[in-house]
Specification:
With 121 residues, the protein is α/β, with parallel strands linked by helices. The chain is built from 4 helices and 8 strands.
Length: 121
């Protein structure tokens, strides 16, 4: 039996306002090496996803991403100092330790996609 060697997995993240979502992710520290009118390749070091110019509210509000970082506290502090929540009118919670061994916080993007950003305890 041949083994499949997986190289990468990308989610297609919806955007209500494609331009604003691209700006949001760049403000978070992501880069966009490629984009057209329908799709953007969004990357932060060795992790990436595809932002799509597509929006269905029910889909976006039930879509979740998880990003593991070296320090949730440092990430949260940076985004708080940049006033990301105020600039984009989005939700940003404070970091807290979870019983499953992760310290994380929640942030929504402009389309309502929920991100959990954390590090292992």
């Amino acid at each position: 039996m041949t083994t499949i060697k997986a190289l990468e997995l990308k989610a297609f993240v919806p955007a209500k306002d494609f331009a604003r979502s691209k700006e949001f992710y760049q403000d978070l520290g992501f880069e966009i090496p490629w984009s057209d009118e329908r799709l953007a390749y969004v990357r932060l070091q060795n992790v990436s996803f595809l932002l799509q110019n597509f929006y269905v509210e029910e889909h976006a509000r039930n879509f979740q991403m998880h990003l593991t970082v070296a320090s949730a506290d440092d990430c949260w502090k940076r985004w708080t100092e940049k006033k990301i929540a105020e600039k984009y009118g989005i939700y940003l919670s404070a970091p807290s330790d979870k019983p499953w061994g992760i310290r994380d916080f929640e942030i929504t993007d402009p389309a309502g996609v929920l991100w959990r950003v954390g590090h292992n305890l």
